Amino acid sequence: MKVGILGGGQLGRMLLQASANYVVETSVLDKESDCPAAHLCHHFVQGDITDFDTVYRFGKGLDAITIEIESVNVDALEKLEAEGVPVYPRPSAIRTIKNKITQKAFYRQHDIPTSEFIITEARKELQEHLSFLPAVHKTGEGGYDGKGVQVLKELKDIDLGFDVPAVLEKMVPIHKEIAVIVAMSNQGEVTLYPPAEMIFDPVLNLLDYQLSPAILPEQVLWKAEAIALKVVKHLNSPGLFAIELFVDKNQEVLVNETAPRVHNSGHHTIEANYSSQYDMLWRIILNYPLGNTDPILPSAIVNLLGAEGYTGKAKYENLEDVLKTDNVFVHLYGKTETKPGRKMGHVTIISKDYQDLAYQANKIKHLLKVIA
Amino acid sequence: MKVGILGGGQLGRMLLQASANYVVETSVLDKESDCPAAHLCHHFVQGDITDFDTVYRFGKGLDAITIEIESVNVDALEKLEAEGVPVYPRPSAIRTIKNKITQKAFYRQHDIPTSEFIITEARKELQEHLSFLPAVHKTGEGGYDGKGVQVLKELKDIDLGFDVPAVLEKMVPIHKEIAVIVAMSNQGEVTLYPPAEMIFDPVLNLLDYQLSPAILPEQVLWKAEAIALKVVKHLNSPGLFAIELFVDKNQEVLVNETAPRVHNSGHHTIEANYSSQYDMLWRIILNYPLGNTDPILPSAIVNLLGAEGYTGKAKYENLEDVLKTDNVFVHLYGKTETKPGRKMGHVTIISKDYQDLAYQANKIKHLLKVIA
């Protein structure tokens, strides 16, 4: 079976690591010939995943196509789907999700709990919504890794808002942020991974560290699972989805965002769960039975981001100390150049003891630095 | 760091899967352009690993070189080593091991317990050693996967012996066959994996199924560890080694054979141990600290061999049933063509319950077939 992946970043890299457990001929499309996934596939094609002709030519003749990033040319994927190439997830699901305005509208349309929101076409409209603050302003298109996201607390912040179509989301009194990964097969069977629980860095808006399974009251777990399933049911597509959720101070559960692909919040599943999110996506694409989402052991993820103040050839400070830790798995993404906040790798810790997970995660966060 | 691998089979494939957790530029040399590892490296070079010039050209300019099979051109590796390219393991260790005559002589020289043996230059010499039977006749060079190995029980079997330099090994009253994987760093630090315990198929002489950690009396475990360490100490080389041992009816431990590389008996370490044998070899080559060999859970391996009577394009019968099993990990090596006895994949089962391991292993052995 010939399968193509749009995007050759770290998610593509880990997807290709998992692909070698099965019989599959892989192709990757990315504009950088030295991207993290370029050397792990049968056929690397250098090109722009947002360009119609490039994506169409790449996908034509493949038996299936998937994505590792949602900023792709959806028109080309729709044409490929219409011509019989299965796309994971369906282009309609990618289209709904990739624009944060249509994504929010989708939740409202299907009565999926999410924060209140207002759509803004231009920055000046924010003046009319001062009573709606504090809120988070997010551009419809092009936001990624904290870009295109701005917290607006009060009048003086309004100049920081975006002067492009965007969505203004009412700030939720967050108790916890969790993520649920859901897999749907071609036959419509679904399975869920246990929720992961995370703390965000207020500056970079990137994952700080994550624990899995999340520690949640049963009622909250049930709500989270029901909501995540409802999202995927209405996206109506086989594939793998990560649903990021807020648990508010009243134990209500609200969808924050959905990713229509393997996701940062699922890295731990490589070592900590029977079927990893990457293995699961291959099972879906190859039309194999869905895998077992049970954890083997609880786990934590520490993301390894380029340190502030360093740009250039990456060096991994104190990597040896981390590699000496007994229950730790290091993943470096092979990116030559570091810059502040760039995702350069992650470390997974597994332990039956949650205190050990927290201790090791904190230790690694303080120890391991990507400098230049 | 630029690292080359001689051989592109399934061991190379799994080594490359593990390499993508670190920053390393990989090259593979193999004569088949569609070998299991060809598409998972930065640079694939098509060529003969037994040819001096090919190996020398491949290795020159690399920062390190390793092997996934011992039938390589050792002269070229010695020249590369002399010119400053580190080779894992050292060519002297490969040379000692790759010929079964020098391997046995090595054990004798260092008082390492092994079965009694006689070196034969030609088949006719076997006549002189009838009182030594039953014994196993093994060719010095070129034996692999049961080829070049012949059991000689009595006079009438002598015609089956080899008419090339070979070693006649006295049959050991085997109670158990076990394997211990030992890693040695550049600094001479060593670590051992828990022994694995196996049952061989009397026809194909290939692994039937394997349990790990082996169930052994403490005294036997200590002997096995001490002997495995002694082998590696006298090979005097950084790298990863698999020492196959017999435990006889008197609980004595004897070395059967050593492999100077990642090994079939260590496949389970991918999922069942903190640092897999593949991860460990990268740590050694990259000069990182040695990994943790502890098991996360006990495990079993079932090898997936081409079924008797089928040659041609591989099909995996009942694969779906196996993929439905909760605690099972399937590894297919991506070989297009199957033939009887060819190593096509393996399945790892993990469970804290040894009875479950044995049950699942037997079930999978009977269920999963590679046909054409």
TrEMBL record, chains A, B:
Keywords: ATP-binding, Ligase, Nucleotide-binding, Purine biosynthesis. The keyword Ligase applies. It is an enzyme of class 6 (ligase). GO terms for biological process: 'de novo' IMP biosynthetic process. Its EC number is 6.3.4.18. Belongs to the PurK/PurT family. Catalyzes the ATP-dependent conversion of 5-aminoimidazole ribonucleotide (AIR) and HCO(3)(-) to N5-carboxyaminoimidazole ribonucleotide (N5-CAIR). InterPro entries: ATP-grasp, ATP-grasp_carboxylate-amine, ATP_grasp_subdomain_1, PreATP-grasp_dom_sf, PurK, PurK_C, PurT/PurK_preATP-grasp, Rudment_hybrid_motif. Pfam families: ATP-grasp (PF02222), PurK_C (PF17769), RS_preATP-grasp-like (PF22660). This is N5-carboxyaminoimidazole ribonucleotide synthase. Residues 104-286 form the ATP-grasp domain. The lineage of its organism: Bacteria, Pseudomonadati, Bacteroidota, Chitinophagia, Chitinophagales. Coiled coil: none annotated. Homodimer. GO terms for molecular function: 5-(carboxyamino)imidazole ribonucleotide synthase activity; ATP binding; metal ion binding; phosphoribosylaminoimidazole carboxylase activity. It catalyses: 5-amino-1-(5-phospho-beta-D-ribosyl)imidazole + hydrogencarbonate + ATP = 5-carboxyamino-1-(5-phospho-D-ribosyl)imidazole + ADP + phosphate + 2 H(+). ATP binds at residues 100, 138, 169-172, 177, 256-257. Pathway: Purine metabolism; IMP biosynthesis via de novo pathway; 5-amino-1-(5-phospho-D-ribosyl)imidazole-4-carboxylate from 5-amino-1-(5-phospho-D-ribosyl)imidazole (N5-CAIR route): step 1/2. Signal peptide: none annotated. PANTHER family: PHOSPHORIBOSYLAMINOIMIDAZOLE CARBOXYLASE (PTHR11609:SF5), PURINE BIOSYNTHESIS PROTEIN 6/7, PUR6/7 (PTHR11609). The keyword Nucleotide-binding applies. GO terms for cellular component: cytosol.
